Amino acid sequence: MALTYIKSLRNVNFPKEVIQIEGCKTFVVGGGKKKGGKGGRASDAPKASSISKEVKASTEVGANILKDGADPKVLADSKYPDWLWHILDKRPTLSELRRKDLESLTYDDLTCFVKLDTRARIKENNSIGAKN
């Protein structure tokens, strides 16, 4: 039965992406060459931006999510809330918090400790109860 199937494939016309070799069909990897160059390497290079430096400094280019909107303007640092400047601050790890006295921890550090300690206990309980 397989032999009759292979013989029937010899007379079938396949699209460009499919090649027929001795009755067996194979697929071309990558979908073939791209138009306008050899291998498409020249078109893969990043293109230089045509936006001036003044516009880049005064607007947040690419932050617009609306069809009819414009890119938002960059404001002065005083116009942004204080919490924004502390988002990327490093938080203490669980081992650092365990070394400190719990009575001397700030509220933020204490909530961080409770969260990290709870997460560690859950992981430990899961690893104990896991089937090996």
TrEMBL record:
GO terms for cellular component: mitochondrial large ribosomal subunit. Its main location: mitochondrion. It is found in: Mitochondrion. The keyword Cell membrane does not apply. Pfam families: Ribosomal_L37. The keyword DNA damage does not apply. Keywords: Mitochondrion, Ribonucleoprotein, Ribosomal protein, Transit peptide. Belongs to the mitochondrion-specific ribosomal protein mL54 family. This is Large ribosomal subunit protein mL54. It comes from Nicotiana sylvestris.
